[in-house]
Amino acid sequence: MKTPIIAPSILAADFANLQNAAEMLNESQADWFHIDVMDGVFVPNISFGMPVIKAIKKHAKKPFDVHLMITQPERYIEDFKNAGADILTVHLEASPHLHRTVQEIKNHGMKAGVSINPHTSVELLRDILPDLDLVLIMSVNPGFGGQKFIENTFNKVRTLRAMADELNPNLIIEIDGGVNDKNAPDLVNAGANALVAGSFVFKSNDPRQTIANLKNQ
Ligand SMILES: O=C(CO)[C@H](O)[C@H](O)COP(=O)(O)O
Ligand SMILES: [Fe+2]
Predict the structure, then answer these.
(1) Is 109 flagged in the annotation as binding?
(2) 145 lines ligand 1 (CB under 6 A)
(3) Is the ipTM of this complex over 0.85?
């Protein structure tokens, strides 16, 4: 089985000890830091913004995979670049001029990702797929950590990987929400090559070991 990229979500870390979380991730087999930004409008929760991302960046030695759950994310592309984003992912449902937004992200020197909610068909990505570095399939409804994985995600991953084989063979397919050691191997077999894990990592007794287990299933 191919080894997936592991992107632990700091949404599930202790916000009073983010330096500790960053140092743990630096020493672990994690590939990216997954950073969830929520605006209280696109999703019914508010997380944190640029000042917190900048503060974590000072202690981080790995790329920042920033997942924007905000309306009209095109307003803040430069700000997230300046805050430390390496990969910037916007929601298809939140950005009416997605093609322009994706080009703007790339023009700012970041990798461009598009995320889709559980109700959104992967077919809607067909025309933009050749322009993308990454698709983030939400396997829970966005807004909160610790939710139950939605099983239909497997079908979406298989369909998207078949589309990508034709249109964009290097596409990274990332899964976000309710990922654990039970569903991770099946997700990779279905065609996913990046896994976000928040609660499963940070609520475990040994987060570093949990990351290693996800990476080397
Ligand atoms: O984007 C997200 C929520 O909207 C988070 O990345 C996701 O929920 C990860 O948390 P968990 O692994 O606990 O489900
Ligand atoms: Fe996320």
Answers:
(1) no
(2) yes
(3) yes
